[in-house]
Design brief:
Chain lengths: 110, 112
């Protein structure tokens, strides 16, 4: 059974602060995907990382895939209220099946 | 470009009733999946398909059936609804390249 532990589950910080969300597993994944979900909507893909050690940047968001392809992190610099939402990591295995972490509910206070 | 379309958006069932959740995608994606999302448990894979005529079970398949007769459609059938199946259901599709999934907007199901 594939498991993906995501932390923290809840995070509330002030605008302008930096934060990091972590996803960890004992399993190796073919890729690690990060999604953002708004209330009442489905998850929306932010990024896919495939290669061990890979780093991708999306404006103020930096995504990293661990060297062993078992873990990943999402770092947000200078958080803004518009970053508020549910962030989900998902590990891909087999024929593109996904196992999701529990999610991080992020609140950025003005 | 509609992406992934799920119907209905909301549904209330009585225990023991059956129903079909519809999912259609217009991106010619090979992979399609059904997930359920429950508070504190993230999304869990129910069934998935790697192409027309090919389906397999995911993490929580009991009480659900799927079929995939065309590339576009992947309906999820609840055989005999139970209160434990109260959840939000998401359908998703992906191309063979593994670049990530496109999700529908979900069906919120309540079983009373």
């Amino acid at each position: 059974t594939q498991l993906l532990e995501q932390s923290p589950q809840f995070l509330s910080i002030q605008e302008g602060e930096n934060l990091t969300v972590y996803c960890n597993s004992s399993s190796v994944f073919s890729s690690l995907q990060w999604y953002r979900q708004e209330p009442g909507e489905g998850p929306v893909l932010l990024v896919t990382v495939v290669t061990g050690g890979e780093v991708k940047k999306l404006k103020r968001l930096t995504f990293q895939f661990g060297d062993a392809r078992k873990d990943s992190s999402l770092h947000i610099t200078a958080a803004q209220p518009g970053d508020t939402g549910l962030y989900l990591c998902a590990g891909a295995y087999g024929a593109q099946k996904l196992v999701f972490g529990q999610g991080t509910r992020l609140t950025i206070n003005p | 470009n509609a992406g992934v379309t799920q119907t209905p958006k909301f549904q209330v069932l009585k225990t023991g009733q059956s129903m079909t959740l519809q999912c259609a995608q217009d991106m010619n994606h090979e992979y399609m999946s059904w997930y359920r999302q429950d508070p504190g448990m993230g999304l869990r894979l129910i069934h998935y398909s790697v192409g027309a005529g090919i389906t397999d079970q995911g993490e929580v398949p009991n009480g659900y059936n799927v079929s995939r007769s065309t590339t576009e459609d992947f309906p999820l059938r609840l055989l005999s609804a139970a209160p434990s199946q109260t959840s939000v259901y998401f359908c998703a599709s992906s191309g063979r390249g593994g670049g990530g999934y496109t999700f529908g907007s979900g069906t919120r199901l309540t079983v009373v």
